[in-house]
Structure formats: structure tokens, C-alpha cells
Design goal:
- By secondary structure, this protein is of the alpha+beta class.
- It is built from three helices and three strands.
- The chain has a three-stranded antiparallel beta sheet with strand order 1-2-3.
- A hairpin with a 2-residue loop joins strand 1 and strand 2.
- The termini are far apart.
Length: 95
């Protein structure tokens, strides 16, 4: 089964990495297009970090600054991504 391709901005791939410590809101820790997006995705694969694809969400997140917490308007969408990542790992928040 072929893995899904990351979102594309124009004809460039686009990737955003988030960090969530369980306190406060998730923060943007890496972002970029083209080769930078490929590097972000490769690091995620190397470290078994779950990756999901959502063109609209990644486009909005890419507009944030590095280290910036996500805005409240994106909480629900990002919460769904975090819940998916926990589910993939067979975990629940706090475990």
C-alpha cells in the first residue's frame, strides 16, 4: 500500500511539525516547503512520529511563526490530529 503524499502548495510539498506537551496549546516547531518539507517528513519517519495529511490545515499552520502556539480557531482541527496520533500509538493523553 502506497503512503499518502504530503500536501502540495502550488507544486511544492508543504509540511508543518507541531509539539504538544499536554500543557498550553500545541506549538509550531518546524515548517517549510519543497526540500524543507521533505526533510521534516524524513525526520518524522526516522523517529516514528505519526504523519497525517490535511492540505487546508497545513496551509493555515504554515502561516504561523516558529514557536508560536496555534490559535484557538484551530484547536478542534489540531486536537483531531493529536487524537489520531495517540490512537496510532495505542495511547491516551497522560500515558
Amino acid at each position: 500500500m502506497k503512503k499518502p503524499e504530503p500536501p502540495v502548495e502550488g507544486k511544492r510539498r508543504l509540511a508543518v511539525a507541531l509539539e504538544y506537551s499536554g500543557k498550553g496549546a500545541p506549538k509550531v516547531t518546524a515548517k517549510g516547503g519543497g526540500e524543507m518539507a521533505e526533510a521534516i517528513l524524513e525526520l518524522a519517519r526516522q523517529h516514528d512520529v505519526p504523519v497525517t495529511q490535511n492540505k487546508e490545515l497545513v496551509t493555515l499552520l504554515a502561516g504561523l511563526e516558529l514557536g508560536q502556539e496555534i490559535p484557538e480557531s484551530l484547536y478542534l482541527a489540531v486536537a483531531e490530529v493529536i487524537a489520531f496520533a495517540y490512537w496510532l500509538r495505542g495511547k491516551t493523553p497522560g500515558t
